């Protein structure tokens, strides 16, 4: 089979395997390894929001806050009602000492999903 330019011979199966392996690496506290696996997945499928969200989580776990912010923002452009992405972006802003932006996204997360962690972060519960 001829190789398509830009995919480096990647198959859909390769992308799924790398995505699952990246989940495992992130769970095993190897966020940088997860990012390395996800980079080619996202290069092949830039529209894949799940892969972008996983890469954002990996960047956050690796304390790479600017790349995490960018990925969470891209996810929210595509899924503005993603409460988890709002919460995670708020935590990213919080770690960057940007409290006003953090508060806005904590509140959006809590408004979209009354998860107790989101409500506490938004200070809606008291």
Automatic annotation (TrEMBL):
Keywords: Repeat, TPR repeat. InterPro entries: TPR-like_helical_dom_sf, TPR_2, TPR_rpt. It comes from the Bacteria. This is Tetratricopeptide repeat protein. The keyword Chaperone does not apply. TPR repeats lie at residues 83-116. Pfam families: TPR_19, TPR_2.
């Amino acid at each position: 089979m001829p190789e398509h330019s830009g995919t480096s011979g990647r198959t859909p199966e390769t992308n799924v395997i790398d995505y699952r392996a990246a989940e495992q690496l992130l769970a095993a506290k190897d966020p940088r390894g997860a990012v390395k696996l996800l980079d080619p997945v996202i290069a092949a499928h830039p529209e894949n929001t799940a892969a972008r969200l996983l890469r954002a989580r990996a960047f956050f776990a690796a304390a790479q806050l600017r790349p995490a912010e960018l990925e969470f923002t891209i996810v929210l452009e595509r899924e503005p009602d993603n409460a988890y992405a709002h919460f995670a972006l708020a935590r990213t802003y919080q770690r960057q000492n940007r409290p006003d932006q953090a508060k806005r996204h904590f509140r959006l997360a809590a408004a979209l999903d009354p998860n107790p962690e989101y409500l506490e972060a938004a200070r809606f519960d008291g």
